[in-house]
Design brief:
This protein has four helices and eight strands, in the order βαβαββββββαα. By secondary structure, the protein is an alpha+beta fold. A hairpin with a 2-residue loop joins strand 4 and strand 5.
């Protein structure tokens, strides 16, 4: 795990990802966000926001997912920023809370790209403070209504995350609120 009082440099991010890319997932139930599944012993979250309707909303929503725009940016973002959405892609989720920066490693488990759904799920690697999996997806129904779905199961992995569990859950919920708002904004530009 990488923690610092300074924003990580490109070299630090690259080195962190280099060490993480060949490591296994840090949790069981890999790929289970694709199913109607409740992970025992994990916090299971399911969040949805309606984004609008029509072809333009659908295309903008898909583009937002493909460009990682569902991350709030100011305090949580993905590196490399232009990482392709493809299976086995390893990324660092960079977080900054109270002036403390850390890197969390994730690998894309699966992708979804069909007429009615677009998105992916990523799972945590050993360099993540939590363990679990998260699905980021947009869906379009038969009438053209588009919604953004966040589905996750997680639990603290490192002692500090376990110690600060209420704060960790607060920031997870904050991320969800800001992610839904970001997707709504991108879909309705």
């Amino acid at each position: 795990m990488w923690i610092s009082f300074h924003k990580p440099t490109r070299a630090e991010i690259d080195e962190f990802l280099h060490h993480q890319k060949s490591l296994p997932f840090s949790y069981q139930f890999v790929g289970k966000t694709s199913e109607d599944f409740i992970a025992p012993g994990f916090d299971n979250d399911y969040n949805v926001v309606e984004l609008g309707a029509g072809a333009a909303v659908w295309e903008k929503s898909k583009q937002a997912i493909a460009q990682w725009k569902m991350f709030p940016g100011v305090w949580a973002y993905i590196e490399p920023a232009n990482a392709p959405i493809c299976e086995n892609q390893v990324v660092a989720m960079v977080a900054n809370i109270f002036g403390i920066w850390w890197l969390n490693s994730c690998r894309i488990v699966y992708t979804i790209d069909n007429e009615h759904q677009f998105g992916f799920a990523y799972g945590t690697l050993p360099g993540h403070v939590e363990c679990g999996e998260e699905l980021f997806m947009v869906e379009k129904d038969g009438e053209g209504n588009v919604r953004y779905v966040l589905k996750a199961f997680s639990r603290p992995r490192f002692w500090l995350a376990r110690l600060a569990y209420p704060a960790a859950r607060f920031f997870q919920k904050r991320f969800v609120r800001q992610s839904k708002a970001a997707m709504f904004k991108m879909a309705n530009k």
